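User: quick one, fold this
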Amino acid sequence: MTTLDPRPRSSTQSTQELCDYGQFSTKSAYEALFNGSVYFAVGKLIWGTWAPKKCKFFMWLVAHNRCWTADRLARRGLSHPDHCPLCEQEEETINHLLSACVFARQFWHRFLDCFGFQAVTPLPNDLDFFMWWQQAGDRISAGVLQGFNTLVVLGAWSIWRTRNDTVFDRIAPSVDRALLLARDEAELWMLAGAKGLSAVVAVAFPD
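Assistant:
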């Protein structure tokens, strides 16, 4: 609440004078806009990463559990596969698909190993995709963190594309094919200006 200054002042006092009395500042007005708001850490992670907008939007849907995986289809009484289309072992959820699935873990191991990040590959107990991403990022040096975060978005996007190819086009899931999709996509992203990704690639594959 604004505290009124008890000292008399004329109607012609300037805004600067009001600021000097501690009644108003641009900073305090800006901060007041966020009173009662909730800090959403993964939002900064998503929107601060270099990636095409369609991929960032996909990651935003992932963060809010709004992807049309089998569990969401089931909640709405819609037709859905009984098991994950990539591993055919467990129920398909977005967290399972991107981090806990056997297929996904094989993909991440080979994909991240190419860039020297094999130490942060998702493990069987990494059941929450964003928790894994955040914890993995804490172990990455600042110099290549931007590139690593871009790789995570690229990897997740490649898994999702592979899943959709399996569901809609009946293409058998293949880790080799998913890696090829990721490689081709990475080349396009670097041409579009993904500097962090280019730096990681330069370290992994020096001339």
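User: anything notable?
Assistant: Residues 1-13 have pLDDT under 50 and may be disordered.
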